[in-house]
Design brief:
Blueprint (H helix, E strand, L loop, with lengths): L8 H4 L2 H6 L1 H9 L5 H11 L5 E5 L6 H16 L6 E5 L2 H17 L1 H7 L13 E2 L13 E5 L11 E5 L10 H13 L11 E6 L7 H7 L3 E4 L17 H5 L6 H5 L1 H9 L16 E3 L20 E7 L11 E9 L2 E10 L3 H15 L3 E5 L3 H12 L4 E4 L5 H13 L3 E4 L5 H10 L7 H13 L20 E3 L1
Parallel strand pairs: 1-6, 1-7, 2-4, 2-5, 5-6, 8-14, 9-12, 11-14, 11-15, 12-13
Antiparallel strand pairs: 3-4, 9-10, 10-11
Helix pairs in contact: 3-5, 4-5, 5-6, 15-17
Length: 480
């Protein structure tokens, strides 16, 4: 086979860029651009000082194509003489699939051939599971790439790299015996080909269990790149492929509803929740709809209920001169039949902006009480608002941990006394944060809920507190 090595003149000047940077290699050879998370992976893969790399990401995020096809093709193209790799997947069939895709790229992709001039060595071997590229060193008897599934044999000499591609699944994580069997095979068979200080190991995976290989290797100090499906701001990290509706929407086909919360958290968020489940259950919430709330019916109707009072509940988090975690505020209406969430605000803001947000929300809703936790960052806000505004600030002393406060608030929710705005864009994220508590990345919304419910339980409201009308609930509002 004759390999062309001349690129067209308009492309030739970029040859070094295409060969030296994995992201540009992929764009040139396969013709597609990478989303941000794949670019982050490429930067880590290019850093050969990282000898143990763990990439955790949800399904369909492109882990296997980027590492098993693009990265390995790039490594082989740049070092056909000295590079040897073992590619391990969950099954031999899956391993062979990527082996053949990579082999065919080297043999038939015209742009790859233009760029690197690497030739298949059909005489030495060109099977699905094991193949060679031509080298000047004829004495080298080890294949360029050897593909195998979990439990398969690994023969031959040492290698420069081992790729472990989604080796865990529901079946081999089901029991302690199966989990140990998998780790024993990795460490005694796959890792028997390691050269200390030389061989690199890359594990790409979706989480399946709290004792899966990802947990094992993270505890050993591997470099970890973790990309959850939903980031701390509540946004999809791969919106081109996964919308929030696809992930946590109301449809039975959404990832969370089809998998169940615990498995969704592991596979899509990379977090392990307690087996017994969270504190808040989704089915406990009740809902109200704009135009059909009890205070929106005619006063002469039997369904009419007045709002007895409005209360705001704050969870604050800031550091002077720098942004920190989220601050959040929920606005609640108190009725004779329960508590209605009217609005939700949160943002990563410094103290001056937090104070402005608190004043703006007070003016918008005219609450009869503004609850702020009398601890840490909340103390500065309490002092400032009490001194310089007319806001009815109530400092909430905390004498229990977050989980104890959550457990104390759940009977009210379980009894069907808490109503969420059905049409609010932020409602799914609000419910989700409560469902995953205390295992989620954020708990600011939860803290505002439990603070309000635990406070309101000890207070009485009568018709003298009636509110004649309230503003329309906001869409999702987030500062920072």
């Amino acid at each position: 086979m004759v390999i062309e090595t001349e690129l067209p003149p308009e492309i030739e000047r970029y040859r070094h860029l295409f060969k030296s940077r994995l992201q540009w290699h992929t764009k040139f050879v396969h013709g597609y651009s990478m989303p941000w998370h794949q670019q982050v992976w490429c930067e880590a893969l290019e850093d050969f000082s990282i000898k143990r790399l763990l990439i955790v990401a949800p399904p369909k995020y492109g882990k296997s194509p980027i590492v098993g096809l693009d990265y390995l093709g790039w490594r082989i193209g740049n070092d056909p003489e000295g590079y040897h790799c073992i590619y391990v997947s969950n099954t031999a069939t899956q391993a062979d699939k990527f082996s053949v895709a990579l082999r065919d790229t080297i043999a038939y992709n015209q742009r790859y051939r233009f760029l690197y001039g690497v030739e298949p060595d059909v005489g030495k071997g060109w099977s699905e599971a094991e193949w060679f590229v031509k080298r000047q060193n004829e004495a080298d008897k080890d294949p360029t790439l050897r593909a195998t599934g979990i439990g398969g044999p690994i023969l031959g000499g040492t290698v420069e790299e081992i790729i472990l591609d989604d080796i865990a699944d529901q079946e081999n994580m089901a029991t302690a015996y199966q989990r140990k069997k998998l780790m024993d095979w990795i460490k005694t068979t796959a890792f028997s080909r390691l050269v200390p200080g030389l061989t690199r190991v890359v594990l790409i995976c979706t989480r399946w269990h709290e004792q899966d290989p990802a947990a094992e290797f993270e505890n050993e100090g591997w470099v970890v790149i973790h990309v959850p499906a939903i980031d701390e701001e509540g946004n999809s990290t791969y919106p081109e492929y996964w919308t929030l509706e696809d992930l946590i929407g109301e449809s039975p086909s959404s990832a969370k509803n089809s998998l169940g919360l615990r498995r969704f958290e592991m596979m899509y968020q990379g977090r392990v929740l307690p087996a017994e489940g969270g504190i808040f259950q989704k089915e406990w919430w009740r809902y109200w709809k704009q135009g059909q709330a009890p205070w929106q019916y005619g006063i002469e109707t039997s369904s009419y209920l007045p709002i007895l009072g409005i209360v705001q509940s704050w969870d604050t988090a800031f550091k002077e001169k720098q942004q920190n975690d989220f601050s959040a505020c929920t606005t609640w209406a108190i009725l004779a039949n329960g508590y209605y969430l009217l609005d939700m605000w949160r943002g990563k803001v410094d103290f001056p902006k937090l104070k402005l947000a608190a004043e703006a929300l007070w003016r918008q809703w005219s609450p009869l009480a503004v609850l702020i936790e009398d601890a840490a960052s909340g103390q500065s806000l309490i002092q400032e608002l009490k001194t310089n505004t007319r806001m009815p600030v109530i400092a909430i002393k905390v004498d229990r941990d977050k989980q104890s406060r959550a457990h104390a608030a759940t009977p009210t929710i379980e009894a069907g006394k808490v109503y969420l705005p059905e049409d609010a864009a932020w409602r799914p994220q609000f419910e989700y944060e409560h469902e995953v508590f205390p295992g989620g990345a954020n708990d600011d919304m939860v803290d505002t809920t439990t603070q309000f419910l635990n406070w309101v339980r000890t207070h009485t409201f009568t018709a003298t507190h009636q509110v004649s009308e309230v503003p329309r609930p906001s869409t999702w509002r987030q500062a920072g």
